[in-house]
Amino acid sequence: MLRCYITDRLQLPSREALLEAIMRNVAAGIDWIQIREKDLSARDLFGLVQCVRAFHSGATKILVNTRVDIALAAGAAGAHLPSGSPPPRRWRAITPPDFLIGVSCHILDEARAAEQEGADYVLFGPVFAPRSKSPDLPPRGLDRLAEAARAVSIPVLALGGITKENASQCTSTGAAGVAAISLFQTC
Prior knowledge:
By secondary structure, this protein is an alpha/beta fold. The chain has one domain: Aldolase class I (TIM Barrel), CATH 3.20.20.70. The protein is built from 8 helices and 8 strands; from the N terminus they run βαβαβαβαβαβαβαβα. Strand 1, helix 1 and strand 2 form a beta-alpha-beta unit. The protein is globular.
């Protein structure tokens, strides 16, 4: 099962607490860490990614939310694009062959389009009501997650309201794994 920790330092008391959460997840063997600090300046985001890269293990892939330029400049393994972003194929001309590009999707057609446009993976959700923020969208549920996982050949990770108790339900639908803030950020 793929596991993706999505950071949100605003839910933590300090930058040090964020770095501790990241180090804890790296030590636990998390597959991906998506640095999702949307409000940071380019300089501060670059610095954070560089800091994380300095102590991460080679097994954990570092992804940067939205900012492909920062991901490339900082030597991250990839970038994650929000729904409605320019398609992954537009970025392929300037990224290395092994650079991961993922896309957030909320409906089946978005997942299919992401795959056709060159995404390496999809975060699909919210599957359940999110625990870390107020929901912008109603939960999609396990049936919609299963449909998305069956509809594409790239990995689909469940997102939204993921807990230790329901993570296995998500993967039993055919999802390749889970992505979450609260599940991995707090222990």
